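It is worth pausing here to work through a concrete case rather than discussing structure prediction in the abstract. The textbook approach is simple: state the sequence, then state the predicted structure, then interpret. We follow exactly that order.
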Amino acid sequence: MRRRVAVIGAGIFGSTVAIHAARRGHEVHLFEKENQLLQAASRINQYRLHSGYHYPRSPDTAESCRHAEASFHLEYGDAIIRHVRHFYGVAKIGSKVSLVEFLSFCRAHGLPYERVEVPQLINPDVADVIEVTEASFDFDAIFLLVNAKLRQSGVFVHLGARFEGRMAKNFDKIILASYSSNNELLADLGIAEEEYQYEVCEKPVVTLPRSFGNTDIVIIDGPFMSVGPMGRTGRYVLGHVEHAIHHSNIGLRPDIPAGIQPYLNKGIIKDPPLTRMEDFIKSGSAFIPALRLAAHAGSMYTIRAVLPYRDATDERPTLVERVGTTIIKIFSGKISTCVEAARIACELI
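Step two, the predicted structure:
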């Protein structure tokens, strides 16, 4: 049966479910409060497609990433960056998972790996290194693909348009895919809100020596960092479990520091007044010596939302569920699961 469907939030999850719903013959309207697609967490992240390696303390998250990977490649394969080498370094001190435990986890979940030594990239005195088969993606390519697929599938795209509860009567089904803003929409639709852990995050963008190469590195499993290519720009994005988070709260809405508010989801901010770049470099260069030579091009800021009280497992599930007779909610922070989430949402439609 053909339905009139509203999708709220034009990040990668909302855009993908809109595309798939339109392909199934529904009349789909995609609403985005920003003036462009993919402007928040879909744009500001590590550009890494998780295959499961990142979650040795959450087997369910690892399995969902591994299971969803093929569908992402099928839909957005043209945006995958080839010839990036991916390394995981297991910290010898302070890691919540030992090397033996990590390798056992990889074998149990069918995640290929190879023990390697790359002292020019990762200090062997502080971390054991495994080369893995994950992939990176090019945001600019994803952006072009999403725009083209929305046009081809006939989705009606409404940019700079905030969906309001009073508009619900015009649609048979409503899909919430606005990530950290889901609660605002639930409240407007008269649906009970849920607590999340909100994190106001900084993603420094740097240039590195050419010798660093096309390389993505993750140090696990604790208060450590990562560095990976920013698409095909020649720059790199830094992540850190602690230093990236300027503010965190558990509740129904994010608490946003006033000084960061103007920079949220605005792309790269040059010479940002609030940056923890020095902390990133100081802690990260102990593992990745090349970071001492990093030149700060600017930082990106966004809000991340995760389920609260999951610190012990670092669980990151992809949730697609009915929250009302006509309302379906999508919540996930793993871009690689967007096509699988769209498939489930379309079945609920």
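Step three, interpretation. The longest strand covers residues 196-207. The chain has one domain: 4-348.
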